[in-house]
Design a protein that fits this description.
237 residues, mainly beta, 14-stranded mixed sheet, 9% helix, 51% strand, globular, Outer membrane lipoprotein-sorting protein
């Protein structure tokens, strides 16, 4: 698999990853369908997938098209991409691949107050209330300060509804909207997330990720979490 392919699956994983907050003690595993629509420069691409996430940290995602591929992640940042057609497996490890950077982790482990910002080194700068919402501003840690000056996070009630990233020149570089909440056990979970990445002042990439058919615990019929890569699969880098 080439660098472009790796970057593609990394972006898919990160899209899967940034959605949740809140500890659902009664939720052990979740299954869902996912549709991700990305628009850039007048071109739109659609990606569909099925996924299962266990609160122990294992996540398996199946992309059925254009060629069937399985994506495996765990809390340690280990990533494996299995291609059943070629019987090959790509293996990498990076902290950004960890399931603890995903929305499923944030929401099902009660991290929706900061969506993982504190664990990434951000520090709370200010808190204010306007028009029925709470707005917190987070200062960037030194390693990220060159690219990100601050992050603004907006909650309505207990649920995050908006994030904005601002660079040192005061230019907004990213916006994320969380909405269409539903219940997973006792936890509110956003079924839809829209992210806008501002490449330049006049160029942006819009990604809308929608989750459906959400099931928990005994309702889960998918056996994705039990799927294992054949022992004779060829390892590639």
């Amino acid at each position: 698999m080439n660098v472009t392919g790796i970057a593609f699956f990394r972006s898919l994983f990160l899209a899967v990853v940034f959605i949740s907050v809140g500890y659902a003690q009664d939720v052990r595993k979740v299954s869902a369908s996912m549709i991700m629509r990305t628009s850039h420069k007048g071109k739109t691409t659609n990606t569909r997938a099925e996924l299962c996430y266990a609160t122990s940290g294992r996540m398996v995602t199946l992309f059925p098209k254009p060629a069937e591929l399985y994506l495996f992640n765990n809390a340690n940042g280990e990533l494996r991409v299995y291609d059943p057609t070629k019987n090959t497996v790509l293996q990498q490890q990076n902290a950004t691949y960890s399931t603890e950077t995903t929305q499923f982790f944030f929401f099902l482990h009660n991290r929706k107050a900061d969506l993982g910002l504190s664990s990434m080194g951000f520090s709370l700068g200010s808190t204010k209330f306007e028009n029925g919402v709470m707005i917190t501003t987070w200062k960037s840690p030194t390693p990220l300060a060159k690219n990100i000056k601050r992050v603004e996070l907006v909650h309505k009630g207990q649920n995050p509804i908006f994030m904005k990233y601002v660079d040192p020149s005061e230019r907004t570089i990213k916006k994320v909207f969380y909405y269409d909440y539903t219940k997973l056990g006792t936890v509110d979970f956003p079924q839809t997330i829209t992210q806008i990445d501002y490449v330049t002042a006049k160029d942006s990439i819009v990604t809308k990720t929608a989750y459906g058919a959400l099931k928990i615990n005994e309702q889960v019929q998918s056996n994705l979490l039990e799927f294992t890569i054949p022992s004779n699969a060829k390892i590639i880098k």
